Structure formats: structure tokens, C-alpha cells
Amino acid sequence: GIGSASASMLWTGVVAFVCLPWFSGGYFPSIGVIGTIIGIVALSTIASALIRILIGFLGFWLYETESMIFLNNKIMFVFGGLLIPLPFYPGWMQKIAWCMPDSAILYGPASLVYNYNWRHILWTVGMLGMWIVVIGLGLSWVYSKGRERLEINGG
Question: CB count, 10 Å around CB of 103?
């Protein structure tokens, strides 16, 4: 969940910022850059957690949701730009990838390493914000439909 992701991000961030000057030939980002990246990674973590919660809510209809989580992980791997960076995909596949939350959750924050400019930052924040709202509305709808279907037995 968000708690374990926050702890993981903290340790990964500490190691990254300690090792960054060594790997980059002495470069160390400004406090503004660090704050921007932390904020975008936090939004990305929230969007990813909301997708996991949405998949969990599918348990109202499905017996087992682990296969859906596995499928989501593979889709994120491909359309999030982890397999191949999105600009290398064919045009039709890029269009699909840019319309999915995976590109904003994974590719947007990761590409800040080499494409740190305000246009890209605003695009990433805007897309993450839009997907957080859309997934949140989907969560609300799925939860309300699931509560209607829920039957509690026992005593």
C-alpha cells in the first residue's frame, strides 16, 4: 500500500541522492528539483495505489483478484515504458500508451531524469491529477455497485 511504498521511496531516495554525485560526475540537483520530483513520485504512488484498490474492489464480483493484479503489472510494464521507452514504440502503440494511466505513473516521473523541463513537469502533474480523479470516481462507482451486491451471512 501507500505506507510500504512511502518507506521504500524514502530509502531509495536517500540512496539515490547520496550516490547521484558519484555517478553523475559531481552534479547534485537543487532543492526545487528534489521537491518537484518527490511531489510527482508521491502523486504517482497515489495513482498506482488507487488502481490496486480498484482491482481489489473487483473482488465483489471475482473470486480471486490476484490474476487481475498480475495482468495490471504486465500492462504497466509494457505501456508504462519499462520494457522499451515509449518514444521507440510504433505510432499506433504510442497513442494507446499515452492515453493510459501507466505512462503518467511510470514513464512521466522516470523521464524527468533526462527531460526535466516545465512543460514535461506540467504534463506529468496534469495527467496524474486527471487519472487520480478518474480512478477515484471509478472507485466510488464500483464500491457503490459492490455494496448493493454484497450479502453478509452468519451470526
Answer: 22
Residue 93 has pLDDT above 80, yes or no: yes
Model confidence at 91: pLDDT above 70: yes
Four-point Cα dihedral 146, 71, 113, 134, nearest 10: -20
Q: Tell me how far apart the 2 most distant CA atoms of the chain are, in Å.
A: 66
Q: Is 150 helix (H, G, I), strand (E, B) or coil?
A: coil
- H or E element: which one contains 77? helix 66-79
Residue 80 near residue 91, CB atoms below 8 Å: no
Other residues' Cβ atoms within 10 Å of the Cβ of residue 93:
14
d(CA 38, CA 109): 9
CB pairs under 8 A, 24+ apart, for 9-12? 9/41, 9/42, 9/45
8 A C-beta contact, residue 46 and residue 132: yes
User: Rounded to an integer, what distance in angstroms lies between the CA atom of residue 100 and that of residue 119?
Assistant: 19
> Is the Cβ–Cβ distance between 36 and 115 less than 8 Å?
no
pTM of the model: 0.82
Closest Cα partner for 50 from 146, 120, 140, 150? Answer: 140
